[in-house]
Design brief:
alpha/beta; uronate isomerase, domain 2, chain A; 4-stranded parallel β-sheet; 3-stranded parallel β-sheet
């Protein structure tokens, strides 16, 4: 019997152990997609408790707690930090075989040196031990980032954001690059005219202009896109339930915008045409400035209307969608490619049934201009666990070039989630080690070690080229 989560955790062969400890573990982290707040980094925030840094904003944990019968008050409500932590400690033993169990103990071990298994029996002891460390300067936000050996962080930012915190971080001389990523989803949300128009009014204010026509909208977005570029942004991100690639004319789009700007509701056909136009135009913008676009596709969001109305979005009431994706995604990419406006692209699927679809789709648009121009992103959201990562790695190996993969990201709102890179790297090394053990790939440590280092860090650094 192997010990729980020792230095050989997930590494089942000597080759895997050597690959991880001599090659993967030392590589810095290039976290090219996350949801952390740049304000925390700019102000070098100190966290008053483990609850504040670990449970606040973590919809993965909240979802587990609710499933364990924990009242919402202890997830997103007004319970004290200790009460929330206590309920999490009661939940942890019930998360066996869920990635939450591994993540929890990796984070306690990595950042706090705690090797005990969290349970109600030791909850107070661990709570106090973590808080004692968090109340020292060594555990400021920036020092936690340093502990994790992070090289680059890309946040998720709306076009109307002023990026003041990114500017402050850069001016402070912080050695870790903290860069914005353009997330213009709200500029497509014509499903709700009131919401859309309120957003467009905010966009008009920050772009210092009036927006009454579709041409005005595009001018405002181009101004903001340029502003982001001037502040170091080279990466966009789009959260989509499917790809949008309907046929439309410029005249139709002008008329649709006039209709929605007046506050009138659009037909479903008009909504699809408008979103198709915007997604294409965003791709053209990104290409014009040499950016990379990311498309996160397939979430079915805000399923629980009662709790959405009570607590808002992004708190654990989303799931996997199953809208058809192959044809619209192909049409979108092909349209951009036909016009020589397809920039570097990272595609993420949330439905594992689409793995082979995405792995083969990227091959359609590799043009030889750079290695791996089209990327199939790492297992996302519900798939960023051991099984999901293994399936993604194996499918990409079978249908693409694993060696050119840009690797892992946290997609997280917590500064303790950098251990997800460790989790991924251990999984990667274990797969390669098993292949060597089975005689399926050569026992060439120079070749394999370089491949592991590339997937862990070098590929992302070279691909995004910030």
């Amino acid at each position: 019997m192997k010990p729980f989560m020792d230095e050989y955790f997930l590494l089942h062969t000597e080759i895997a152990q050597k690959l991880y400890h001599e090659h993967a573990a030392k590589m810095p982290i290039f976290d090219y997609h996350c949801h952390i707040n740049p304000k925390d980094i700019a102000e070098d925030r100190m966290f008053k408790s483990i609850t504040e840094i670990w449970l606040a904003g973590d919809h993965y944990k909240w979802r587990g707690m609710r499933t364990n019968g924990v009242d919402e008050r202890f997830c997103t409500g007004d319970a004290s930090d200790w009460e929330k932590f206590e309920k999490w400690a009661e939940t942890v033993p019930q998360t066996l075989r869920n990635p939450l169990y591994h993540w929890t103990h990796l984070e306690l071990k990595k950042f706090f040196g705690i090797n005990e298994v969290l349970s109600p029996k030791n909850a107070r002891q661990i709570f106090d031990a973590c808080n004692e460390k968090l109340n020292t300067a060594e555990y400021s936000c920036r020092n936690i980032i340093r502990m994790a050996n992070v090289h680059t962080i890309c946040t998720t930012d709306d076009p109307i954001d002023n990026l003041q915190y990114h500017q402050q971080i850069k001016a402070s001389g912080f050695e870790v690059a903290v860069l914005p990523a353009w997330r213009p989803d709200k500029a497509m949300m014509v499903d709700d005219p009131a919401f859309f128009n309120n957003y467009i009014n905010q966009l008009a204010t920050v772009a210092d202009m009036t927006i009454t026509t579709f041409a005005d909208l595009m001018t405002a977005l181009h101004r903001r896109h340029q502003y982001f570029h001037e502040n170091g942004c080279r990466l966009s991100d789009h959260g989509l339930d499917t790809a949008f690639a309907e046929d439309y004319t410029a005249k139709e789009i002008r008329a649709i915008f006039t209709t929605v700007r007046s506050g009138s509701k659009l037909t479903n056909e008009e909504i699809l045409k408008f979103k198709s136009c915007m997604l294409y135009e965003f791709g053209v913008m990104d290409h014009s400035r040499g950016w990379t676009q990311q498309l996160h596709i397939g979430a079915l969001r805000n399923n629980n209307t009662r709790l959405f109305n009570q607590s808002g979005p992004d708190i654990g009431f989303d799931s996997i969608g199953d809208k058809p994706i192959a044809e619209p995604l192909s049409r979108l990419l092909n349209k951009l490619d036909m016009e020589d406006k397809l920039c570097k692209t990272v595609l993420y699927n949330l439905n594992p049934a689409d793995n082979e679809l995405y792995a083969t789709m990227i091959g359609n648009f590799q043009d030889g201009s750079i290695p791996g121009k089209m990327q199939w992103g790492s297992g996302w959201w519900f798939l960023d666990q051991k099984d999901g990562m293994e399936k993604q790695i194996n499918t990409l190996s079978n249908m693409g070039l694993l060696s050119r993969f840009v690797g892992m990201l946290t997609d997280s709102r917590s500064f303790l989630s950098y251990t997800r890179h460790e989790y991924f790297r251990r999984t990667l090394c274990n797969i390669l080690g098993n292949d060597v053990e089975n005689g399926e790939i050569p026992n060439d440590m120079e070749l394999l070690g370089q491949m592991v280092e590339n997937i862990s860090f070098n590929n992302a650094k070279n691909y995004f080229n910030f």
